[in-house]
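Hypothesis: this fold can be encoded by more than one sequence.
Test: take the structure tokens below, design a sequence, compare later.
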């Protein structure tokens, strides 16, 4: 398991390590004698999945993303081994256009990310608007790195436009500076429609009554109870869990030093109850990627099970052959998943 920390460079480093079979990266060389990985699950963000998919596609190693929606990833010429358990942005662009057409709006503004997610999604949206006799009054982009100058430019475009409906095809972190300025200037009278990248409506003053497209969420029975039952004592070597415990309970784990000055610190015991905390991510509705990650895991599990259970003469490969039960090739796993 590799944590990319949301950094593309770390994502590629993790992908190369998986291909090489060791931490030290040696391109085009595999150091392990054991069978190669059957598949890789990740990334969540499209900007990380795209370079990762290009790299893994060279080896035809199946990659299943549980959160990357950018439409570009549907191109099998560029990404032959990429799969996902979430729909492409092409579909939400169509839904946004249909929603605009349903209400008879013909003059709308578009605010998009300066990224593949925003650019491709908004481009499809503009094409779809024509089907409903609607068009864009303006189309402006927000940079991935905050720019006060760009935010002010977008604000001026919104103020000067006659469009009363604005579509946001942007991630929340890029929209926050803009919405802060919208709220500060009290720019009301605009109706906002947001894509699924917009995580929540925290700006009630300017977004009251607005609409948001959301990918249908599935609940995982028992998952919340599993999370609430986690204890650092169950995995004592997990430093992340120990740090998490200190953060949420405001305590420190006993050491020689903390025992000596224990009156100045609240000590962690590992028996504290997560259920007693008012933490939003413990709400099951916020487990946005849990169900889609679950589906990705089971897609691979079912493929591996079916490959091992394959009977000679009934297989999915040439001449109805089966894969080597003890040495699956990645491309064979991908074919099995697509059946």
């Amino acid at each position: 398991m590799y944590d990319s920390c949301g950094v593309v460079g770390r994502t590629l480093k993790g992908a190369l390590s998986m291909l090489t079979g060791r931490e030290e990266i040696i391109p085009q060389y595999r150091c392990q004698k054991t069978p190669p990985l059957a598949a890789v699950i990740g990334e969540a963000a499209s900007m990380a999945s795209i370079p990762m998919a290009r790299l893994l596609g060279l080896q035809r190693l199946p990659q299943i993303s549980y959160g990357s929606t950018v439409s570009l990833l549907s191109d099998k010429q560029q990404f032959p081994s990429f799969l996902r358990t979430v729909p492409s942005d092409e579909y939400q662009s169509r839904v946004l256009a249909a929603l605009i057409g349903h209400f008879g709006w013909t003059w709308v503004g578009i605010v998009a990310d300066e990224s593949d997610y925003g650019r491709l999604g908004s481009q499809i949206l503009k094409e779809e608007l024509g089907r409903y006799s609607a068009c864009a009054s303006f189309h402006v982009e927000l940079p991935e790195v905050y720019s006060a100058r760009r935010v002010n430019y977008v604000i001026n475009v919104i103020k000067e436009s006659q469009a009363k409906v604005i579509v946001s095809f942007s991630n929340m972190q890029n929209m926050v500076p803009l919405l802060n300025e919208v709220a500060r200037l009290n720019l009301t009278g605009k109706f906002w429609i947001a894509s699924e990248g917009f995580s929540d409506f925290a700006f009630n003053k300017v977004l009251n009554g607005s609409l948001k497209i959301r990918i249908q969420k599935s609940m995982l029975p028992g998952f919340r109870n599993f999370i609430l039952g986690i204890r650092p004592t169950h995995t004592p070597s997990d430093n992340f869990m120990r740090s998490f415990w200190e953060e949420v309970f405001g305590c420190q784990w006993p050491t020689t030093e903390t025992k000596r000055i224990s009156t100045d610190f609240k000590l962690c015991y590992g028996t504290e109850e997560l259920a007693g905390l008012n933490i939003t991510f413990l709400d099951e509705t916020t487990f946005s990627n849990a169900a889609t990650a679950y589906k990705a895991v089971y897609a691979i599990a079912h493929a591996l099970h079916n490959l091992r259970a394959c009977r000679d003469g009934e297989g999915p490969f040439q001449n109805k052959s089966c894969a080597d039960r003890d040495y699956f090739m990645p491309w064979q796993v991908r074919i099995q998943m697509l059946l």
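The longest helix spans residues 290-308. DSSP finds twelve helices and eight strands in the chain.
Hypothesis status: open.
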